[in-house]
Amino acid sequence: MENLFQAAKQCIAAANIEEKLELTRKTFAALMAGELDVESHIAPEPISAPGRPDKPELVPSRQLPRRRMGSPAGSASMLHSFVHIEFNAINLAWDAVYRFRGMPRDYYTDWASVAAEEATHFELLRKHLNSLGYEYGDFVAHDGLWSVAKDTAHDVLVRMAVVPRVLEARGLDVTPAIIERFRGNGDEKAAQILEIILQDEIGHVEIGTRWYVYLCKLRGLDREATFERMINDYVKERIKGPLHIEARRKAGFNSQEMALLNQLISQR
Hints:
This protein is mostly helical. It is built from 10 helices and 2 strands, in the order βααβαααααααα. It is globular and about 55 Å long.
């Protein structure tokens, strides 16, 4: 029987877009069919960067030009940023599989399912970007998501606290307003795609919450105090408001965590 972790590594390493998408679909299907072994006594190898195409050019986030949606190019640039996020999200989901050994099988099926959904999101957004006359890579982008993945590669608890529950949860907050901006600019197709993605992303963040809570209980840690410590240690500067309260509650945030986030936002 083939091994899930080697398959996940191949998904991460694939630089060709079509190859990464195809490997993602095949690996998820094989896992769900019971064809992949989820046991491994071999430590994961360091991954400095995932496989990705030559473009987009990656620059520090502070060097990204402001995206103004008043023009066709501006709207395409905003759409491109979502395409880039979804491409990174495929790698992040597979890294959550590859990086952390000894978790329950459901953990791996959860994150493999996320990888497959992120691939679908990428394809939907890329196809619409193509219909506007642009391709993924036509605009510059940043590598902030993968840099945090490297910072959290040492501990699955840290990864679950930081990547899904802070970075990806931020998408729950900002996407509704961007949907309305696309709709206001007459791009109903983009708005509809982002509405689909928003609902799926609530589920992805909820998966992060579920495994975060599982690990806190397993280690005898206080959920709220640990979350605060993780934020302060890794991503305090990334906490911004306003929060999408309903979406975050569906994604598993409790009242104490919401109060903590609002307190951190008020201090900025």
